[in-house]
Amino acid sequence: MSETAKIELGGETFELPVIEGTENEKAIDIKSLRGLTGYITLDTGFKNTGSTTSSITYLDGENGILRYRGYPIEQLAERASFLEVAYLLIYGELPTQLQLDEFTNSITQHTLVHEDMKQFFEAYPAKAHPMGVLASMVCSLSTFYPESLDPNRGEDAKNLTIHRLIAKLPTLAAWSYKNAMRHPFMYPRNDMDYCANFLNMMFAMPTGEYEPDPVVVTALNKLLILHADHEQNCSASTVRIVGSSHANLYASISAGIAALWGPLHGGANQAVIEMLQKIAEDGGDVDKWVAKAKDKDDPFRLMGFGHRVYKNFDPRATIIKKACDEVLAKLGVDDPMLDIAKRLEQVALEDEYFKERNLYPNVDFYSGIIYKAIGIPTEMFTVMFALGRLPGWIAQWKEMLENGDPIGRPRQIYTGANEREYVNIANR
Ligand code: CMC
To answer: Tell me, which fold does domain 268-373 have in CATH?
Structure first.
């Protein structure tokens, strides 16, 4: 007989089914709990709540395991291309050469954005944060492609919307940077691969030659793969919950970009560099800043440390740390920030406070250092994360629709005032 969980309430025992995943992780299915008992479960921050079953990404935080569709992140980061991983995440299997060629070709066909969208960019102030611009631009795509408004319009229409988004995000991302610089926009180059084309749109100028450095292209490919999915994190859950109302893909991804922006999530990569800069400007006393992070009366936290699910090490951080050393060596970059980062990492890893709480450097601790080395401006770091995370968001959105998941609608325990009479303003 399959396993069940028993819950005792008011002298009565209720039995609830247990669900088991393919990696033997277990959950108590509480769908019937309220109907049976009148109780709901409460779990702020969803620290111990599964919001769905999913076959996209497997993550074991205790053992530092991350796999996309069963393939270890280490193998994908070393051997695959970003578009190959995007295909894997979205369609469930590694593509054959023909499938990859067709997918790449379709993406390449759609890299241009409508000329009218240029006017939107020009209306933003130069100091506009590129994440704000990107979220708005992605949502605006829905206004140019009204046929995308119904997410259930059939496979071909869904795929066209998906391919358009993967194709156009690098263009929109690079243009948000060019706009901030008040530099002319560079059009996509369809003779370049996905990463090289993005770098070209970021760094080329109509006035001169630019050839993306292969070291940088390879590093970027790896970074995008490492960020491509991370199961039910804050932004992926946002995409799924927005999409669960059957809002279109562009609107759902735009919401995901907004969720990613925060410094506790993707915005941490920008926050790490800003923190390292602050420590450097303050004289580089790492111990002082570690003490501040431990002080409960001080709001300061070590950015790039800690993770909701990784409690041993972040496998992405291990890969990225190695890549970081390689890229800096190959590019001959000698960054004093890296020195502070290394000292900070060492002090924190040896400190009881961090050890007790399983606080290790996460992916964002190192990604910012690589982005800085390859010339990406700090405000663009989270945009880079969004570029990488896009296939994961799309895969989560597609799976949610295909599984027929119901609209996301959590309950609450109300703690406000009991019923009271309205009082006219003159009598308050
Ligand atoms: N510096 C100092 N103390 C910390 C830190 C930190 N970076 N992170 C957690 N703690 C402490 C926290 O104060 C708490 O201590 P206590 O038990 O004494 O109250 C304990 O560790 C547990 O922290 P929590 O906030 O309850 O853990 P959480 O799972 O809710 O938060 C986190 C996870 C990532 C938001 C948090 O660790 C954090 O704020 N880290 C810094 C921001 C960061 O690097 N975010 C990027 C995450 S990786 C990229 C991504 O996937 O989004």
So the answer is: Cytochrome p450-Terp; domain 2 (1.10.230)
